[in-house]
Structure formats: C-alpha cells, structure tokens
Amino acid sequence: MSDSTCTPVYKRILLKLSGEALMGGDAYGINRQTISEIVAEIKDVAALGVEIGVVIGGGNIFRGVAPAATGMDRATADYMGMLATVMNGLALQDAMRLAGLNSRVQSALDIEQVVEPYIRGKAIRYLEQGRIVIFAAGTGNPFFTTDTAAALRGAEIGAQIVLKATKVDGIYTADPKKDPSATRYDKISFDEAINRNLAVMDATAFALCRDQKLPINVFSIFHPGALKRVVLGEPEGTLVYC
Ligand code: UDP
C-alpha cells in the first residue's frame, strides 16, 4: 500500500530560486550556510523521486535594471546579470555535490569551458536519469528576467508547475511590509491575479505560464520543509491556477 502522505503530486517541477535567496542575512553574494540549507530542502524533494529543474537568479550579485538606470547600457548590464546567474549556478552545483546530489548546469549563453550549453533534449534526459538540472544565464537575452527563464524552461521541459521560491511566503493582497492589514492568498486564479493587478512574477513570465496553463506556487524557501509540502500538494504559500 502506498503512503499517500509521501506521494508527490508532481513528477517534474521547475524551481525558480532568486539570487537574493542565496544571500541569507548578508547584503550581497552567496552565503554558504544558506545555500546548503536550500540544497537540503531540494534533496528532500529529490528523495521523493521528483524530477527537478532549477532556474537560478542573479540579483544577489548583479541586476541589470539598476545600473541601466544610472546610465550604463541596459543590454550590457543585462549580460552582466546573466553572467551572475552562471556564478550562482556553479555555487549551487557545488553545494549539491557536497550534499551528494548529482546535478548539471546548462547555460543559455555559451561558456563551454565552464558549463555546458542549454540543450533541451539533453536536459530532459538528465532529468529522466534523476539528475537535477540547473539552468543558468536566464533566457540568454537581455531585457528579460530569470522569472521569464523559469516560465520558459518550465514549459520546455514539460514541468507540471513552476515553484517560485522567494523570501516572502506567498502573494498578498498588498505589500505586507507597507500594509499590516494585507492578507495572503492560499490560491488565486490567473485571471483574478491579473484583475487585482498582483505582481506574481514579471508580466512576460506570468503571461507565458498562463498561456501554457502552467501553475505557479509562490512560497518562502526559508520555511523549513515548505518545498516538500508544496510538492506533496499540501497548502503552502500561494498557488496560482488556471
Ligand atoms: N537577465 C537578463 N535576461 C534573462 C535573465 C536575466 O538580462 O533572461 C539579467 C537581468 O539584468 C537581471 C539579472 O540578469 O536583472 C539577474 O536576474 P534576475 O533579476 O531575474 O534575478 P533574481 O531577481 O531572480 O535574483
């Protein structure tokens, strides 16, 4: 008899980890303790047999929009941001190695001496073999974000859900930092999220998920066990459904 309390509801997931999640309490960069805690959460889910693709952000190292605002060429700044995600991808892979997890990094920009290029068929084969695939360099194009890369890679690899791991534990009626009366949605439809003008992901990412009928679950990576609860179909954070 199978134990339904340990049966994942998703076979393949796309986890979007923001760069800021890797900072822990630091002001920038990668906090080793934090990254190993995140990897432990991922390991628990991998142990359930779930196939895991990860899109890693770069905001802890470099965000293109801010330098562009101070006069730097936006596309150049965005390429720097994408390169930052490659550094995070390598750090994440190394933390996975230390935890005994088998992973591969694939980059949307060609840096073949460092990581292999993104090849969809190969990524899917790795997933089928139980390896975790870390997708770095976003979409490979400036003027996009890693949220959009998460939606894109999620759709490409046939993930059943995009899990957006952030520092906040879901989607709120208003910014909880500014409005103490803000409440969290347990679930909300794509249409309602649009009507209420809620910033779940950036608009491109959100539209892609909606078009592809790819649900999104926003949750806090700092709630111990939250990732596993999401994968087991337990209420955690906010589910955006079609
Ligand atoms: N970026 C880009 N194209 C992409 C993905 C990312 O140009 O497809 C750049 C962009 O400058 C962005 C930076 O990389 O600000 C880091 O990504 P993001 O801000 O999404 O990281 P996160 O907020 O998740 O840490």
Automatic annotation (TrEMBL):
Which catalytic reaction applies to this protein?
Answer: UMP + ATP = UDP + ADP
Q: Tell me the compartments it is located in.
A: Cytoplasm
Q: Which GO terms describe its molecular function?
A: ATP binding; UMP kinase activity
Which keywords appear in this protein's UniProt record, sorted alphabetically? ATP-binding, Cytoplasm, Kinase, Nucleotide-binding, Pyrimidine biosynthesis, Transferase
Q: Tell me if Nucleotide-binding is a UniProt keyword of this record.
A: yes
The record, for InterPro entries, names: Asp/Glu/Uridylate_kinase, Uridylate_kinase, Uridylate_kinase_bac
Superkingdom to which the source organism belongs:
Bacteria
List positions binding UMP: G58, D78, T139, G140, N141, P142, F143, F144, T145, T146
Family (UniProt): Belongs to the UMP kinase family.
User: What HAMAP family would the database entry show?
Assistant: PyrH_B
Query: What is the name attached to this protein's record?
Result: Uridylate kinase
Q: From which organism does this entry originate?
A: Azospira inquinata
Q: What is the lineage of its organism?
A: Bacteria, Pseudomonadati, Pseudomonadota, Betaproteobacteria, Rhodocyclales
